[in-house]
Amino acid sequence: MNRLEGNVALVTGGSRGIGAAVALRLAEEGADVALTYREGEAPAQKIVEQIEGLGRRALAVRADSADAAALDAAVERTVGTLGRLDVLVNNAGVFLVGPLDQLGPAEIDATLAVNVRAPYQLARAASRHMTDGGRIINIGSNIAERAPFPGLALYAMSKTALIGLTKGLARELGPRAITVNLVHPGPTDTDANPAAGPNAEAIAGLTALGRYAAPAEIAATVAHLAGPDARYLTGSVISVDGGFSA
Length: 246
What we know:
By secondary structure, this protein is α/β, with parallel strands linked by helices.
């Protein structure tokens, strides 16, 4: 299928996990794809090669999502190299957890810089280049809907903030037919959270389906939101969590 033929997408944190799956799925749908990574050039280049193997153009940009100037530069490089920008996927995130008395100002600032400020900054930069009908898709977390264990307050706060950002941007950009939506993944089998990890059985048991998602299952929903069939869907929060929050 080539529902995204002629489109250019930027996926932050696109070198591994959900971000890599999203980048590849958008390329399969016909988009040229730029992705950012903070460290690990080799994995990022591997995704670039896979995208190019699908016959699409690809670009890996090293950018720390905590650095607003680096994010602006990533958008400009995407547009300068690939010619346009139609789809932004705010996927990069940090996951700092722990007791309330152990997470202070440094951890708060680090979390909010990447999980909240970066999506706002990227939407601001990307929307300047998007033509009418663009797409912004934020990647949140099931923890925004349900925090089942202690130590998740800071992370849950940061991901819950994306609900307000998504709805506010949907209103602001709606007159240009730019849609803005939020996807809350549930437990997903990635390097950072493997389905064979020490606590995986308990976490999977919190879902209605009793299992972790594959990254490709999250990417499928993102691809739908990026495509023409989702043009009347905006300001929405979609949980792809196997019934974790049911």
